[in-house]
UniProtKB/TrEMBL annotation:
A single BP term in Gene Ontology: protein ubiquitination
Origin: domain of life: Eukaryota
Gene3D superfamilies in alphabetical order: Zinc/RING finger domain, C3HC4 (zinc finger)
Protein name, UniProt field: RING-type domain-containing protein
Residues covered by region (Disordered): 82-122
GO terms assigned for molecular function: ubiquitin protein ligase activity; zinc ion binding
PANTHER family: IM:7152348, RING-TYPE DOMAIN-CONTAINING PROTEIN
Lineage summary: Eukaryota, Metazoa, Chordata, Craniata, Vertebrata
One Pfam family this sequence matches: zf-RING_UBOX
InterPro entries documented for this protein: RING_finger_E3_ubiq-ligases, Znf-RING_euk, Znf_RING, Znf_RING/FYVE/PHD, Znf_RING_CS
Domain RING-type as annotated: residue spans: 9-56
Bias (Acidic residues) ranges: 82-95
Species whose genome carries this gene: Synaphobranchus kaupii (Kaup's arrowtooth eel)
SMART domains named in the record: RING (SM00184)
Zinc keyword on record: yes
Amino acid sequence: MVLCEDRECGVCYMPYSRRERIPRVLHCRHTFCASCLELMAQPKSGLLTVRCPLCRQMTCVGRGLGLQEALWVNTKVWDQIAESDEDEEEEEENADGQMQPAPQAERPAPKHSRSKLKLPAFLRKFKKPQERILPVCNIEMKSWRRLTAEETP
């Protein structure tokens, strides 16, 4: 199983954000967005409990505390969330609110339950410098085998 804990929630598959989908750590050290954790939380004998969807370990929160106060923010993920992502998200929401409805013939197909792909954030991953693998030169290759009499200086 591959975990996608780096930039998106493993339950809703939405990217983490600094406002709505804050990455919170359960006691088992798995991270999910606060929105999903709130939906999964169940009151049980005065405690608020959340069962981890990956390992099924229970996380219990004491009386008088909510998940926001009791669970830590995953700072590793938090630091990866660019503040510019939040600005772009706001711009997209504002642009969506100002759009006029399309005529019936041009109206796109209905959206699925998954959210729309944020193309600028997706493309930014490809802009990051990639590690280049250079071919090995002959000198390094010779170091792995014995040198013959012809090759010795």
